[in-house]
Amino acid sequence: MAQTTPNHTMTVSGWAAHDPSGKITPHTFKRRENGMNDVTIKILYCGICHTDIHHVKNEWGITMYPVVPGHEIVGIITRVGNNVTNFKVGDRAGVGCMAATCLKCEYCKDGIENYCDQVQFVYNGIFWDGSITYGGYSEFFVADHRYVVRVPENLPMDAAAPLLCAGITVYAPMKDNNLIESPGKRIGIVGLGGLGHIAVKFGKAFGHHVTIISTSPNKEKEAKERLGADDFILSNNSEEMQAKKRTLDFILDTVSAQHSIGPTLELLKVNGTLVIVGAPEKPIDLPSFPLIFGKRVVKGSMIGSIKETQDMMDVCGKHNITCDIEIVSTDNINEALNRLVKNDVKYRFVLDIAGESSKV
Ligand SMILES: [Zn+2]
Ligand SMILES: [Zn+2]
């Protein structure tokens, strides 16, 4: 196990959950020493993702306790291994969800290693050396350099952190559907939360007409005035839904609560695509008629490759795109997780691991 792996000699302070109560407490643990292919990162900030809640409470039944969550990690590189040529000490670095992949399968070779079936995540995963991975709710991180990206100099580190999961999750399907360099499309975003708000920013930066599709009427003002969305459809109002039939080229569905996608599909033009990135626990209700009568496509997408993640970071640097965040001190992790369960955040919590914000 991790604690007894011979080269795991680096003592790191972090925060972990120890049982399904999900309560987070300070936790000291060991990481591997910086290897030939590794970089060590002094973590400045780590975003809090809904996935962290699923893991600390063992809601998917796969948690190995103690679990140190966190996969939206940004910080400064403090060590580089002998084989590492693309990073140096002092660089601004980011680590997202992936810790390792097989490097040999067709997906790894094609540069879509996020779909490798051996993918191991940065926490609650099993690294190549057999150790359990611990995430970014900690002061230092050791990463294989192949799973590290650089954070552009002009982006604030705290607001850039959630790009590593929330950002890439919405960027990759937009790129996949040719929305990066072909402006003027009409796109819909279902749900205005951590994922949805950043999708609006990408959509506008790429020159599209962006519609928010939501069950909350009070989000219309916010969507249009603060985030710059062009239109808003109240999805539980059937007249509005009917009036907007066949108006959209592409829809990104970010909602993880149970919902029917049949009426949403009707909003797509013929040949339109709906991509699911929210993950409801139960199977999705998918009626066949909207698919057949509109030749529509429904597909999924999971984060992005490291190359795509770096491309996204660079695009964010170019367009000055960051997430809207609320900074949380490490004393208030449990409170933030409780608020996140109730979706009480605009739009992403970011842990101030190094106490940087209190120094300002
Ligand atoms: Zn995440
Ligand atoms: Zn692979």
TrEMBL record:
<dbReference type="GO" id="GO:0009809">
    <property type="term" value="P:lignin biosynthetic process"/>
</dbReference>
<dbReference type="InterPro" id="IPR011032">
    <property type="entry name" value="GroES-like_sf"/>
</dbReference>
<dbReference type="InterPro" id="IPR013154">
    <property type="entry name" value="ADH-like_N"/>
</dbReference>
<feature type="domain" description="Enoyl reductase (ER)">
    <location>
        <begin position="22"/>
        <end position="351"/>
    </location>
</feature>
<dbReference type="GO" id="GO:0046872">
    <property type="term" value="F:metal ion binding"/>
</dbReference>
<comment type="similarity">
    <text>Belongs to the zinc-containing alcohol dehydrogenase family.</text>
</comment>
<dbReference type="Pfam" id="PF08240">
    <property type="entry name" value="ADH_N"/>
</dbReference>
<dbReference type="InterPro" id="IPR020843">
    <property type="entry name" value="ER"/>
</dbReference>
<keyword id="KW-0862">Zinc</keyword>
<dbReference type="InterPro" id="IPR036291">
    <property type="entry name" value="NAD(P)-bd_dom_sf"/>
</dbReference>
<dbReference type="InterPro" id="IPR047109">
    <property type="entry name" value="CAD-like"/>
</dbReference>
<keyword id="KW-0560">Oxidoreductase</keyword>
<dbReference type="InterPro" id="IPR013149">
    <property type="entry name" value="ADH-like_C"/>
</dbReference>
<dbReference type="GO" id="GO:0016491">
    <property type="term" value="F:oxidoreductase activity"/>
</dbReference>
<protein>
    <recommendedName>
        <fullName>Enoyl reductase (ER) domain-containing protein</fullName>
    </recommendedName>
</protein>
<dbReference type="InterPro" id="IPR002328">
    <property type="entry name" value="ADH_Zn_CS"/>
</dbReference>
<keyword id="KW-0479">Metal-binding</keyword>
<dbReference type="Pfam" id="PF00107">
    <property type="entry name" value="ADH_zinc_N"/>
</dbReference>
